[in-house]
Structures are given as structure tokens and as C-alpha cells.
């Protein structure tokens, strides 16, 4: 039997792919181009996905590193990951029209840390150093008001500012299980520490991890469609390994696939990070069908119907654009 004729059982994790925050951010860029015309500038990748970024570039989006890279007189959009308070302040100082595409669930974390700081708490933020969301959250408060906890070792050794009430918050795209372990350590060390009223890890991250857990033990291998700088996608690949699968692969697109990696695989799981469009999953399935006799089974652990509204400047043209609401 040739490799092309070999059977391959594919388990599709559901839900997968775009979340409401990503969908909203992409629509914001598209709508802004429709209203203001090209080019529209975007500070940082609107979401962490090469396919999405290149598609928006083709429509007239120009991606830049900083607000200072935006020419006078052009609109600028802030990415879904959120920004420090200094970023809109810089745009305002230059008189730039801006639209904030920060995911509402990230904005929720920003609001939490702001209120906690006002109430006299020192904040421990669980997240990954250098990630745009973490930079944006830390940038909501004065320097020194937040300490970053990246892992369990940090939680065991952190020595926060003495004589201050303690609270914690988290990045929205972390491993649910790893974060629970870190929070447990913090609560044991600091019994009075205060947490958010509702889990900061977003519904989409949680659902996609649960879906991967549901298929991992059935699979010889799991492929996660997503970008290497996408936190939620990286976590999915890690969750697959921790949940009983022998190997996992983070793949940007089917075009990047080294098919020798599939040697010996007869049961394959497929998921996609929250910033990966379904077309990339379809392309991978199509390539699998060229090489194997494929049977596809979808395993769904949750149904999502959340939708976030676009900012008023894009739905009510008479409203000034310098807002994130």
C-alpha cells in the first residue's frame, strides 16, 4: 500500500480558529479602509497571523512598529492585543485619528488592574514577557505597580513590595492548567491575595484548549494551525502533548508542511489558534486528502456565538474616531 493510499483518521477540534475579538479586529481594519480609504496604518500586527496580515495589506493596510511611523494626517489602528496608555496619548498629541481594536476581554483586564491599583493593591500579572498583551497591560499603570510572573518558579520566589495589598491578573491566552498551578502557589504563599471576579483567560482560549484535550489521546499527532508568535496557538500545541498525544506541530500553513513528519501517523488531530482563519484548516485537509484516504470526524466541546460590536466611529460616521468604544 502506498503512502497516498494509506488511511488517515482526522479528528477536527471544535471550536477552533477565529474568536470574537480577532473577528472584530479584522473587521475594524476592513471597515476603516472602506470609510477613510487606503492607506490605513496599523500599529503592530492586528492579530498574530501571517495570512490575515498579508490579506489586509493587499486591501491597503500598512503595518508599522510605532505611532511615530505613521505619517501626519492618516488614521491608525491599535492591535487586538491592547496597548499601553502612552500609545493613544502619543496619537492624540499628534492629532492623529485613531481606532482602538483591543479585544474587549483584554480591555476588561486593563480595567481590572486600573481599579485594583486605585484601591491600593500591588498587582502580580501572570503572563509572558515581551508579549504585546502583557506590555499593554503593564503600561496601564505607573512603573513598578505590576510584577510579572511567567511560571511556577517565579510564583515561588517573587518578593513583592512589602506592606501592600496583593492582587493578581492574567494574560488572556495562557494555558488554563499551568495558570491554575501558578495561582495555587500564589494563594498558598499569600493567603490574602485577591483575584479577578471572573477568570481573565478568555472563553476562546479555554474552549480551544478543552477541544484539543478531547482529541489528543485519540491521536498519534496533533497539528495546530497558527503563528509562532501567537500565544494561544503555542499553548494549544503544548496542551496536545500534555494530554496524551505523542507529538504536536505548530504550523503556519499547509505550504510549510514537511510531510515526512507524518511518517507513522494514522490518527491526526487538527486545531487552529484563535487568530487562524478556517481557510488554512481547509487547505491542510485538502493536502492530506491528496496523500491519504482520509476520514474526518469533528469533535466539538462548546458552541460559540459571542460577537463584539465595532467601535462607534466605524458604525456612526458622525462620532469622532479617537476612541476605543
Describe this structure in words.
This protein is an alpha/beta fold. It folds into three domains: 3-18 and 203-300, Cobalt-precorrin-4 Transmethylase, domain 1 (3-Layer(aba) Sandwich), CATH 3.40.1010; 20-102, Rossmann fold (3-Layer(aba) Sandwich); 105-189, 4-hydroxy-3-methylbut-2-enyl diphosphate reductase, catalytic domain (Cobalt-precorrin-4 Transmethylase, domain 1). Helices cover 37% and strands 19% of the residues. It has eleven helices and twelve strands. The chain has helices at 20-36, 50-59, 86-93, 104-118, 132-138, 152-157, 176-189, 203-216, 231-242, 278-291, 312-315; strands spanning 7-14, 40-43, 61-64, 76-78, 98-100, 121-126, 146-149, 165-170, 221-225, 247-251, 267-272, 293-300. The strands form three sheets. A five-stranded parallel β-sheet has the order 10-9-11-1-12, sandwiched between helices. Helix 8 packs parallel to helix 9. The longest helix has 17 residues, at 20-36. It is flat and about 65 Å long. It starts with 6 loop residues before the first strand and ends in a 10-residue tail after the last helix.
